[in-house]
Amino acid sequence: MDGQAYGRDGTKEKAWIEGEKRKDDDLGQKEMLRGHWGSKTEFILAVAGNVVGLGNVWRFPYLCYKNGGGAFLVPYLVFVVTCGVPLFLLETAMGQYTQEGGITCWKRLCPLAEGIGYAGQLILLYSCMCYIIILAWALFYLLFSFSAQLPWASCTNYWNTDDCVDFSSQNRTFNRTGQMNSTSAATEFWERRVLAISGGIEEVGSVRWEVLLCLIVMWVICYFCIWKGVKSTGKVVYFTATFPYAMLLVLLIRGLTLPGALQGVLFYLYPEPDRLSDPQVWMEAGSQIFFSYSVGVGSLTVLGSYNTYNNNCYKDCLWLCLLNSGTSVVAGFAVFSVLGFMAHEQGVPIEEVAESGPGLAFIAYPQAVAMMPLPQMWAACFFIMIILLGLDTQFVAMEVVMTSVSDLFPAVLRKTGRRELFLLFFCLTCFFFQLIMVTEGGMYVFQLFDYYACNGTCVLFLSVFESLAMGWIFGEADRMYGVIEDMTGMRPNPVFKLCWLYMTPLVAFICSLVEYQPLTFNRWYVYPGWVYVLGWLLNLEGQIGGLKDLKLFLERLSSGAEMEVLMTAAGESTDK
């Protein structure tokens, strides 16, 4: 690659941008056909609703306490600056510049990397099938929150076993040996009432009809949230993206006023500087950034594509990244203050009650609120927050897939009424494919797809390919600098160039190598060997687009003569 092709004066990149603009005399017409956000506020709220999700509440606080408390914030902030913000800005700018979805934007910017777009949409498709299951569970809990007595607070229900222990007996005088052989009422409600979980993935069992009805309700809500495109999505996010913060504030204030809250907060943030020498701490911080910032799959590209060309996406991205990370930290106070209260009431160390993921949302936190005065009210507040946090992420993912497919087939899907019909087909297809996840063995299937097809190495590898494509093939990052400057009037900090070229792909690649751990359920159920094979096939399916692009790039790079073609937006020479 000619190091002088994109010099500091930016002459060649500016000429390229002007040439691309001349090709886009119909940009205004494209915006009219696709639509755009009614205001900057709609864009900010939509992106905030997408990136601020369940992981901020149930994953970050647990990782923070597990990896050195306040000391964990050091590697976390390092990776925010070197990976999270650069990729966030890159993807948003790609969408805003091209006014295209997650697939067609690559056709315009770097045709050789088009497979990245297809792979990202496949991951989002799997995510749409998995994420909404969590919302169905949360709705199930919300409905039971209005019971005269919370069903997960006692052992007098038909689903409870002789080993069940309710909260009144889990106190300082309770026999520790007996407690080790017992199961909490909250755990039994989750495993025996909600899931009715079978003995393994081979035992599918019957459909859980109550959960199925909750799932149908959530699909109907999501359908009407986005059925008119950004016109409806932009209005819905005024509520769905803001109300969770009101609920979080209420739960935070309540949590901090409980006995034992201070111990919980200290446990959450007490710094252990010696943990910074542990490579695993740094790897988990890096992995959390890639997952919580919704990068790698094209979501930010699609949301940015509905901006006007001259929107200041540079400033927007900085504020949104600050909001995302800030929410994670504040959510930790809300979670661990309540866990500290629960540990105080039971007279056990906080380590014994700290959970992450579904274990926090559906066992630990419900168990804690059942110990409070007015438990029904606090349970309802918590599950409303969970539903709204997840609802934003779910319907934005659906909108991203819809936009990407519509931009791929505009002549078919932009006709009147076609979008609504295709969205209905999309929802029904996902619904029927995910029916197995609401059976008695459905939790095992859910974990399989969530772990291998929606997260993990597939997202990390796509982030590697994306950084390499835009940082090296597209024009050594200089061209993207010129694009952002032309749109916003501001040239990004030079640190972003170093990140796009070196730091981001390197960190994503290293994290992808060390992130994997064999999938288990409840730390005791080990999946049969064929499940791991199926899981890796699902994982590779999400990476195959990027791997194909890398293969083509290496083949063309070895030819030498076609290097100029690799650096063009549409396969033409940069000199044209």
UniProtKB/TrEMBL annotation:
GO terms for molecular function: gamma-aminobutyric acid:sodium:chloride symporter activity; metal ion binding. GO terms for cellular component: cell projection; plasma membrane. Disulfide bonds join 155-164. It holds the Pfam family SNF. It is found in: Membrane. The keyword Magnesium does not apply. This is Transporter. It comes from Hucho hucho.
